[in-house]
Amino acid sequence: MTARKSASEIGPPPAGLPSCIQWKRVGRLWRVDDYFAVPDQDYFDGYRTGQRIAIEFAEWIAGMPDGGPIDAIRFIAAACRAFDTPGRLGPRGAAAGFLREVETWLSAVGRTRFALSSAQSSLARSLRDEEYLEARERAKKLDFARRMEIAKAAKARSARAASR
């Protein structure tokens, strides 16, 4: 079985992604170098840039198949890091414009029952998965202990037979 390429190893860079994603070529592969590469701008100019990026991001999310070419969590995390950049000129304005739109989307989804039921379902699935993995690990350990006991008994029989 071959390992699936990580989302950031698909190349050449696919079309239709937010324009702020910066790619680099590593050998034969393209990888995301920066998820939120925006120019240094005055806060208010940057804010409008961030709003444009939010539109591109929403268009990308709307048309993205599961397991798309970039990771939305890394994208948002990069915007959060850019938001923490101090100074009058920089990526902070773009990050603020983008994150304000994301906040609006989260608030809108949060007001529906979908967000609550989705989070509850995800938690229940995680708990079931954890129980299953713990049971499987216990079974492996018991099986290993059983095999070691069998091997130990066989070694003891062999030693007794050799000493006779």
What would you note in describing this structure?
The chain has a domain at 7-111. Helix 2 packs across helix 3. Helix content is 63%, strand content 9%. The strands form two sheets. The chain has a two-stranded antiparallel ribbon with strand order 1-2. Strands 3-4 form a two-stranded antiparallel sheet. It is built from four helices and four strands; from the N terminus they run βββααβαα. A hairpin with a 2-residue loop joins strand 1 (22-26) and strand 2. It is mainly α.
Secondary structure topology:
Blueprint: E1 22-26, E2 29-34, E3 41-42, H1 43-63, H2 72-83, E4 89-90, H3 92-110, H4 113-163
Mean pLDDT: 85
Low-pLDDT sequence parts? 1-10
Structural class: mainly alpha
Spatial arrangement of strands, main beta sheet: 1-2
Q: What would you call the shape? A: elongated
The total of helices stands at: 4
Beta content comes to 5-15%
User: How big is the Rg?
Assistant: 26 Å
Number of strands: 4
How would you sum up the major sheet?
2 strands, antiparallel
Terminus-to-terminus distance: 51 Å
Order of helices and strands: EEEHHEHH
Q: Which percent bin holds the helix content?
A: 55-70%
Features:
164 residues; two-stranded antiparallel ribbon; 63% helix
